[in-house]
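in:
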């Protein structure tokens, strides 16, 4: 059901307005059970869809943490079901770093500014508009279309996708999933390349409990201060290099970015990649580093009880993202090597949660991947569509755990470079251009037209 230009103009306006409203709802997830308030966006989305023939159900793990699932039945019960999944929560902000109100949802020129504009309320809103448009026409596809607006993605899915996939598969049942993020076009000497996400790193966050001996703060000489140990452990972890893994996904990413030949050669050489990254602009360097390294980020530290007491225990939380194939045992080996034998006797590892934490991936040998490629060619004829890996975690991993192929998609305008786009995730002055909202809304319609053919 290809949309005419006038229809697409209308749908783009609806996506824009819905995105602004979702930003203004301030569904800020700081990781605590009482944060998020995703019910605000779930109610907003329900109001957008309740006049359609779709079957709506609100799913809740905790009060205020609602998710919404809408199912539009197909005509053939044996046909595969396609899910469009977007999360409704956003990460906290530091308002002082913003040029505008981060929750104003303001239009500045041809861009919408606000927390969540690229992560991922742009996708969540465009999916809702496309779903509503399909539902309110006479067009019905062979398989069901499911729209899933889910809470708590930004804190690991504890109050969202993880328990719902485990316990409410009756409501979420699907065979393929479209979610965040992808669709970054890159123009190089060979033409245009569009990256879609087929894999993501595993999350194996660890709590390091570092022990010392208590004593009086007025006599610190030769004491066993747990904070001092923790400081040295942090320094060693940050300096640790587990080695680069140059695989097919990373090679495709590097070649897509059209670096000079000497820079490309360094990036694809495990012995010289650090040299290339050091000379690169920071946002792009961070992304490329994470795409080929298991990464360690000491992000939370708690210790000490009183200003005049030598601390005897510190808890250090290290955000660890592992590459495909890395097990928890290998990870502990990396940490032990980084920390060193003389300090390891004072350290105990505990998993941050009970997730397996392994990296996940989906094959591109599926009808959905073919539909995505064909649909992107509708907008960017001749573009080469390549699989890529996302360095952060998404709710796709829970569906992949059930054997469901998942792709991070969307379609951006060529005006946003990959490095610039990546810098907007969880950053100051997050924003998305309206042309990208138009292209992404169109993509969902085009994919539905092609998926069941």
């Amino acid at each position: 059901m290809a949309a005419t230009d006038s229809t697409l103009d209308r749908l783009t306006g609806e996506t824009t307005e819905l995105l602004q409203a979702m930003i203004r709802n301030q569904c800020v997830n700081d990781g605590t059970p009482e944060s998020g308030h995703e019910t605000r966006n779930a109610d907003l989305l329900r109001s957008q869809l309740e006049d359609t023939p779709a079957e709506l159900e609100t799913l809740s793990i905790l009060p205020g943490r609602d998710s919404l699932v809408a199912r539009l039945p197909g005509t053939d019960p044996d046909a595969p079901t396609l899910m469009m999944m977007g999360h409704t929560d956003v990460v906290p902000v530091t308002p002082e770093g913003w040029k505008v109100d981060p929750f104003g949802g303001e239009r500045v020129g041809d861009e919408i500014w606000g927390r969540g504009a690229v992560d991922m309320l742009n996708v969540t809103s465009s999916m809702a508009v496309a779903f509503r448009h399909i539902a309110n026409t006479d067009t019905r596809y062979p398989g069901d279309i499911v729209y899933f607006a889910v809470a708590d993605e930004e804190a690991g899915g504890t109050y969202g996708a993880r328990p719902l996939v485990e316990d409410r598969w009756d409501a979420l049942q699907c065979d393929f999933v479209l979610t965040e993020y992808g669709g970054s076009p890159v123009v190089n000497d060979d033409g245009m390349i569009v990256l879609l996400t087929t894999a993501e790193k595993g999350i194996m966050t660890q709590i390091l409990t570092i022990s010392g001996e208590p004593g009086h703060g007025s006599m610190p000489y030769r004491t066993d201060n747990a904070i001092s140990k923790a400081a040295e452990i942090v320094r060693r972890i940050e300096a640790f290099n587990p080695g680069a893994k140059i695989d097919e996904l990373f090679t495709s990413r590097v070649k897509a970015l059209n670096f000079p030949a000497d820079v490309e050669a360094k990036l694809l050489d495990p012995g010289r990649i650090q040299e290339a990254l050091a000379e690169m602009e920071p946002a792009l360097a961070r992304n490329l580093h994470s795409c080929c390294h298991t990464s360690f980020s000491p992000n939370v530290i708690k210790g000490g009880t009183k200003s005049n007491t030598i601390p005897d225990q510190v808890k250090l939380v290290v955000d660890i993202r592992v590459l495909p194939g890395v097990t928890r045992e290998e990870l502990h080996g990396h940490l032990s090597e980084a920390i060193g034998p003389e300090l390891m006797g004072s350290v105990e590892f505990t998993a941050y949660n009970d997730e397996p934490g392994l990296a996940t991936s989906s094959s591109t040998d599926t009808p959905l991947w073919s539909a995505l490629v064909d649909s992107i060619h509708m907008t960017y004829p001749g573009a080469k569509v390549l699989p890529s890996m996302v360095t952060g975690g998404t709710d796709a991993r829970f569906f992949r755990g059930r054997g469901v192929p998942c792709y991070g998609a969307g379609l951006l305008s060529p005006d946003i470079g990959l490095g610039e786009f990546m810098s907007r995730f969880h950053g100051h002055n997050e924003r998305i251009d309206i042309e990208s909202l138009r292209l992404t809304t169109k993509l969902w319609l085009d994919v539905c037209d092609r998926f069941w053919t």
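note: The CA atoms of residues 195 and 309 lie 54 Å apart.
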